[in-house]
Amino acid sequence: MARLLQASDAMNASIAPITATDPAADVRDSHRAMLPGARVLLDAGTCLPQRFPANPCTLCVGACPLALLETDGRAPRLREQASTAADTCIGCGQCAAACPTGALHVDGFALPVDLPEEPEILIDCWRVPAAESPAGTLRVPCLGGLSSGWLLSLFDAAGERPIRLLDRGQCAECPAGEGNRNLLAAITEARLLMFGCGVDIGLIPMLVWRPCNTPLLPAIPERSAETPIARRGFFRSLFGAGARAVDEVKSPADATPVTLRTTMQPLQRLRLTSALTRIAQRHGLPVPARAMPRLSLGDCCAHGVCARVCPTGALQQVTSAGMVELRFSAARCISCSQCLRVCPERALRLDAEGGSAATEVLQRWRQNECATCGADYPNPAVTPELAVAGTCPACSKAEQLTRGVAGFLRAPVVSDVSQP
Predict the structure, then answer these.
(1) Which CATH fold topology does 250-262+286-369 show?
(2) Using N-to-C axis directions, what is the helix angle for 179-196 and 267-282, rounded to 10°?
(3) CB 196 within 8 A of CB 290
(4) Taking the C-alpha atoms of 28, 34, 35 and 40 in order, what is their torsion angle to the nearest 10 degrees?
(5) Is the CB of residue 103 less than 8 Å from the CB of residue 42?
(6) What value does the CA radius of gyration of the chain take, rounded to a whole number of Å?
(7) How far apart are CA 292 and CA 69, in angstroms?
């Protein structure tokens, strides 16, 4: 881990340490402990493989430094030999940081309601004795459980004050030692996005070498060992005005989204894009394309199945004023590729970056009325080979099937039995 010898008088500020808000009381209705006493909580309904069994997401499994998580194509679970989960799951939060949908939750990583009025924001680990943390330090269970979106949200909430993460020099000896790699990846991504927004190099998050004068605690302590802050701070920090703006797809008042499943809130994604949008606006620059996936559309027949399975509402098919539009919001997209898997024509292409923060209209079609059943349908919704003039896809297929059966019944029977 890098050792950056950059100290500041602000590290000795004479105010009490600040601890991240505890959202556990607010997620108990949706999240459940994976095993009795386990620190990691799961909301199976928002887990991608649970919603879509063919989805190959295993990000949480790969993030766990102790290899405690496993999956059989559905929601993850703690492996069976980890029966005493309270002793094995250390609560480092790396699995939750990797989860794109918020299906996993570990206490202690919510943003605080109030931040110190100091030049720098310091972040320290719970294993460090509280007396060793400089006054005013924000304490979290493990630095490895921080994501780039978390760092960007804190930077935005702090009025773009520099963030300094305290490197205690003992991460390699911690059971969560893999957190070094995850933390450096999160810092690197946050820096690249900040540079793209025009943030000065002196303000980017940095690791600061600060060895402890006393031994670290043997394990990450339970949440009760830290000082809680009002629970509503979790919602205030996570669902600010920017997050709500991203959450709403900008559509005409009479537009009607077409969905089949309950849309989930991709908390990590909304946290990143809402903070990034505000930072970029303050610097008069667009949101970096690096943070925005790009969805391209080829020969589409407007079935709308892609929009109906999109778990976050990033892809929506809306009807307005006799027109049907397929709209894409990169700010909500978690790049799960579920839309690509279900598209009958394989008309979609998803790139990891290069998109726009604004909602895009990928295609627009005129709406027709089916001559057979009277239902409205988009004009290209019937493929040429199945087209029956003036009918919707369902009626076209039914007509084609009827014709096929009738043709089969009228066909002459030809015997291939040789005559003697």
Answers:
(1) Alpha-Beta Plaits (3.30.70)
(2) 40
(3) yes
(4) -70
(5) yes
(6) 26
(7) 29
Burial level of 415, CB count in 10 A (0-12/13-18/19+)?
exposed
Would you state the structure tokens that stand for residue 271, as one six-digit string?
């946290």
- HSE (CB half, 13 Å, CA atoms) of 300? 26
Write out the two tokens for 207.
């690791």
Cα distance between residue 132 and residue 375, in whole Å = 69
Which amino acid appears at position 344 of this protein? P
pLDDT tens-digit readout, 14-66? 223 333 333 333 555 678 888 887 889 999 889 999 988 888 899 999 999 88
Q: List, in sequence order, every residue forming a beta bridge with 32; answer none if it has no partner.
A: 42
Is the whole model's pTM more than 0.85, yes or no?
A: no
- How many CA atoms are closer than 13 Å to the CA of 388, on its beta-carbon side? 18
Pairing of strands 69-70, 77-78: antiparallel
The domain ranges of the chain are 9-238, 250-262+286-369, 370-404
319 or 163, which is more confident? 163
Backbone region of residue 232 per phi and psi (left: phi > 0; alpha: psi in -120 to 50; beta: other values): alpha
Structure tokens at 93: 């939060």
What lies within 8 Å, CB to CB, of 349 at 6+ separation is 295, 296, 297, 298, 340
pLDDT at res. 394: 77
